[in-house]
Known about the structure:
With 408 residues, this protein is an alpha/beta fold. The chain is 46% helix and 16% strand. The strands form two sheets. The protein has a seven-stranded parallel beta sheet, with helices on both faces. α4 crosses α10 and α6 (109-119) crosses α7.
Amino acid sequence: MFAYDLVIKLYGFAIRMASRKNPKAALWVAGRKQAYERMLEWRSRNPGKLLWMHCASLGEYEQGRGALEAFQRAHPDWRVALSFYSPSGFEMAVPASSVEKFYLPLDLKSQVERWVEMLQPSLFVSIRYEFWLRLLDALYEKKVPTAVLSAHFRPDHWFFKPWASFALRRLKRLDSIGAQDRESLVLLSQKGFENAEFTGNGRVDRVVEIAKNPEPVEWLERWIQGRKLVVCGSIYLHELPMLLPLIDAQPERRWLLVPHEVDRVSVENISKELGSRSFALWSKGVQAVETPILILDSVGWLAKCYRYAELAYVGGGYGSGVHNLLEPAAFGCPSFFGPKHKGYPEAQALLEKGASFRAETVNAAFLEDFSSEPERRPRASRAALNYIEEQKGASRRELALIERFVRA
Length: 408
């Protein structure tokens, strides 16, 4: 564990150095200041049984949210503390008022032992593959039950490497792992895990809930005025060069551009990249109905917009990994995305079912055919909805998993 501890310390140092210029790193550092004192005061006012759920970021929170809310309904006498690693999760997640959220400290032995001693959790749950080894050690020493929900594993994960046996031993000590896909379950079995079962992807139930009760987006309806819409969701600046030829070739469509980050610099950079093309900013008011491009520089709207789209481009596939494909699929909206979707089983499944497409195959001719061939879009839409239907029920199975560790 010496090398592991050293890497964690170096990472913390690098983040503190970066915080001088990087706003996200600055939030990471500032959010951890006085966090222990604040949570100590909260815990003193909220004694009793505690569920501690940990999420890396907003996406993981959405995966665990269904099980969390179901747990709260079933066990209103329990307290809930929700920790995040990334500012994008801590700043954007809006849990119930009864849930206290905080930043996870660096995974150093002295720090995490102090937190576990202070919080005294009755149950610890993490989401997807957020494994902090020193924290797991501290929980194990205190005999706190530990579980992972919506877990996804790949053969190339670092903890399966021959030199990482120290990490694998700790993961096998977890009380239970709820795998989000069958492939993960098979892999875990091959690696000698006896603590895993299939529960599914908790995020599916969340997007189903959103799609079941759609809210009208009046400003979008006014801007579209019956034209075909392509929603480009959670995109980065470096993805625009791939999208611009499509926009130029199909000016009769409406193109809604939704940046992954809606800070001033990101929006300005995307605006500059559009050059002389006619566009409008949502924050300025949706006035120019003849403008084919609208930049949605506000959060909280994206999922609601997919119900109006003929097709969606989901960002991230030309960088660290494709973003949320389940939101458009829940509305029966076909999608296309970049090549970096390894580790996202829903991406491969949607491609295989014909509900999604690889970005390199989508050009002006594809869009023309997609609109003109009577069955092309409806067939892809049905495939997306069928996939969502097949995946429902994860939150119920996850609740059943963690309730095994609820102590009277």
